[in-house]
Amino acid sequence: MLTARSDETDQLVGLGVGADDYMSKPFSMRTLVARVHALLRRVERHPAPTPTVVHEFDDVRVDEHARRVFRDGDEVHLTRTEFDLLLFLARRPGAAFARDRLLSDVWGWSRDDSMTSVPSRTVDSHVKALRRKLGSDVVRTVHGVGYAFRARG
Fold first, then answer.
1. 78: nearest Cα among 110, 106, 120
2. Strands 74-76 and 139-142
3. Regarding beta strands 23-24 and 2-3, do their DSSP bridges make them parallel or antiparallel, or are they unpaired?
4. On the CB side of 81, how many CA atoms lie within 13 Å of its CA?
5. First to last CA, the chain
6. What are the distances in angstroms from CA 48 to CA 44, 45, 51, 96, 102?
7. What single DSSP character describes residue 96?
């Protein structure tokens, strides 16, 4: 906190409401810079932990940050694209997505790129690999639409 108020009460209130430091005018720019660097060192020594985001559905567990998948407690090794596809679907269980949407959101292909029959078969082959590795009940086919991650239950 940088302020013109220099009373002890003002300093206590400022620190009490959450300020990490308190400086009153007049101040030296070198002192201000030194205090900012000291605060930054403290933050760098204790980085905020990365929150663990895990999607669990019965016997399937998808750890988003570690990029690991488990079925019945056993780790299942997926390729990068298989994991990205599974994660996209697992974030929205039960929702059905068309192949074009999956190609766009998972593969990053534009709609113009996906107009041939070859790219849409790419989705099919990756879904087939996921079913082979995780079981046929994890990703379901929604006829006339595309694919969905099974809903909880």
1. 106
2. unpaired
3. parallel
4. 13
5. 52
6. 9, 10, 9, 35, 33
7. E
What average pLDDT does the segment 32-45 reach? 82
User: Which residue's structure tokens are 């750890």?
Assistant: 63
CA distance 93 to 148: 7
**Rounded Cα distance, 126 and 89, in Å:** 13
pLDDT tens digits for range 52-74: 788 888 889 999 989 999 999 99
In DSSP terms, which residues pair with 140 in a beta bridge? 148
pTM of the predicted structure, to 2 decimals = 0.64
Q: Is the pLDDT of residue 77 over 90?
A: yes
Quote the pLDDT of residue 119: 63
Residue partners of 146: CB distance under 8 A and separation at least 6? 96, 97, 98, 99, 101, 102, 123
Give whole-number Cα distances, 109 to 3, 68, 90, 101, 114, in Å: 53, 25, 20, 9, 7
Question: Cα 59 to the chain's mean position, in Å?
Answer: 21
Instruction: Give the C-alpha distances (Å, rounded to integers) separating 141 from 5, 88, 136.
Output: 67, 15, 10
Interatomic CA distance for residues 24 and 34, integer angstroms: 15
Cα–Cα distances in angstroms (integers) from residue 129 to residues 85, 103, 110, in the given order = 11, 16, 23
CA angle 84, 88, 90 (to 5 degrees): 110
